[in-house]
Amino acid sequence: MIMMKKRVVALGLAFSLAIPASTGFAASSTSSVQDLLGMQEESLPNVKILATGGTIAGSAASNTATTGYTAGAIGVETLIDAVPELTDIATISGEQIANVGSPNIDTDVLLTLAKRVNVLLAQDDTDGIVITHGTDTLEETAFFLHMTVKSDKPVVVVGAMRPATAISADGPMNLYNAVKVAGAEKSVGKGVLVVLNDRIGSARMISKTNTTMLDTFQSEEYGFLGAIAGGEIHYYQEMLRKHTTETPFDVSELTELPQVDILYGYQNMPSYLFEAAAANGADGIVTAGSGNGSLSSIGSEVVKKVIEKGIPVVRASRVGNGIVTETSNGIAADSLNPQKARILLMLALTETDDPEVIEQYFNEF
Ligand code: ASP
């Protein structure tokens, strides 16, 4: 249950203005005056903003520049101060976890973030968390948290496509919407959410689909969970795959993650890519195959050898949508794209090296 700080606000402004300020009534009977004025208690949720950098915190040399800027130039307090309306919808505090472009989000940041989110959400004074993040690898961090957060409280990952310095920057409204979603009772138990461009997606299903355009985040095959319209949150779908409290993954004691490499499938894909991954210590491999996860005959043969060496291989697809179905050669990624399949394989390997258990994770999460 979300615990919220109470504050008293005036509803019915016109009526309250009509009441003389000093009636001699207030000191003795505050609640009656509140009733008279149409005042009532409204709850403001406590939302923590954890900032990691990205374009939402980006600064460009001119206000028309939307590429070639510095991602992660602005600190969390400046981000919060830029949207004073946040204090109307939540009690806000910010923490800077990192300040980098999201291609530089690494294992250290992922683990720091997940541990911090779990600590904060275990506290009564946190109702929800917003994470500001670069959009390039946002879906990887969001899915990592979707698998490792141990709470039903809302966690929302948000970014922007235009730097904070741009005309019509999308960051402030995205941040406002993210805080609104993170503070909402109706967002509880939905897993990690991604909010951009007035839409609410599940971390499992949403992906960046366009290099530069504002509407880049799509949940093409299975749809968004909801949207923000007219200042209201509207949900339409539930995430049925297991997440957060339903997974076995516990990052609280972890200081590193297994090494999982992604190998892209194409015509004439050479076998030395697999050899290079194995020689460089890969604990697992994800293939981004063509179509339904297919590889060339040479690629399929080498996958068998890699599996025989005890390195699990997960077959995903480079197509970007759809389900990779099971075969006897490797574990099917189901509908996870290669970058999310990598996250799940890394986490799976923190628990087990049994391919059957790993396969079960891919079927359930
Ligand atoms: N390169 C940026 C990043 O991912 C792009 C963005 O945030 O939109 O940090």
TrEMBL record:
Catalytic reactions on record: L-asparagine + H2O = L-aspartate + NH4(+)
UniProt xrefs under Gene3D superfamilies: 3.40.50.40, L-asparaginase, N-terminal domain (3.40.50.1170)
Every L-asparaginase N-terminal domain range: 46-239
Residue ranges of every copy of the Asparaginase/glutaminase C-terminal domain listed in the record: 259-362
Active site positions, chain numbering: 55, 55 (o-isoaspartyl threonine intermediate), 135
SUPFAM superfamilies per the UniProt record, alphabetical: Glutaminase/Asparaginase
Annotated CDD domains: L-asparaginase_II (cd08964)
Entry EC no(s): 3.5.1.1
Protein name: asparaginase
Organism of derivation: Aureibacillus halotolerans
